[in-house]
Amino acid sequence: MDKDTLVTLLKFKRWIDSETLKAIKAINESTYAEKRHLMLRLMNHIYVVDRIFRANISGQQHGYTALNTPETPSVDELEVTMHDCINGYIQHVSAMTPADLGKTIKFSFVDGGEGEMTAIDMLNHMLFHGTYHRGAVGWLVSECGGVAPKDVLTVFLRDHHH
Questions:
Q1: What is the H or E stretch that residue 99 is in?
Q2: Which UniProt keywords apply (predicted)?
Q3: Using an 8 Å Cβ cutoff, are 161 and 44 in contact?
Q4: How many domains does the chain have?
Q5: Quick one: pLDDT band at residue 1, thresholds 50, 70, 90?
Q6: Which residues are annotated as a binding site for a divalent metal cation?
Q7: What are the tens digits of pLDDT across the range 6-23?
């Protein structure tokens, strides 16, 4: 996969994460407190994993000891942190060479054990991981009477990628 394609997929992720958070924001907090909380937990989990793999790819320590945080951020907080995180990915990936993308990186899994993956495999994992969990969030949004965003690349490419 070339760098331009990766940047497009990261821009898609930034857009659909934002759209998903907007859908959560529209859910009545008092009527659907438990499901709305679960939506935020899932989105925060996506964010934590995004941060973990961003640190792994850039050779930094992430500081996480679990795949979610004890506290649950607000929708507004997630809108800022998720957007900033993906902007960081876009900047980093834009500066990578094909050799950087194919480089094998050793890392430690948060739940124990050692791993090694290429940077491109880490990026693919991060992109697909978010899609999986946003699907669950979309289902919960629908159960609460909301409208889940169309989490598909075709809509992004048609309507939002310039």
A1: helix 98-102
A2: Metal-binding
A3: no
A4: 1
A5: confident
A6: 45, 129, 133
A7: 999 999 999 999 999 999
